[in-house]
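The records we work with from here on pair a chain with its fold. Here is one such record, which you should read through line by line:
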Amino acid sequence: MDSIIYKKAYNFSLRIIKAYRYLIEEKKEFILSKQLLRSGTSIGANIAEANGAISKADFRNKMSIAYKESLETQYWLSLLKDSDFIDIKSYQSINQDAVEISKILCSIVKNTNTKNNHKDTS
């Protein structure tokens, strides 16, 4: 798998894992960090599943789930920032990646819907 979105999501997952380690080891924060780990790594996992989809609908569904997980990840990052578990600079850096991934996934889902709608009407 060498798609741009897969690579971005994989590298983002690695950042999330490092953030999780920092949060549990240095900040002793176990609840929000676990949620961040789950949603942040789920993005790439769903993209990987989408790459093995058995139909266009299956592909769209997995990419849609990845998109929703990226939005959830942004929520957890905001909570961690606003509760002072991560500083603003760290938040901005990792959240920027999350926003970029969300935009790409949203575009993929919309384009998949558009392509399928055009085929349905022809």
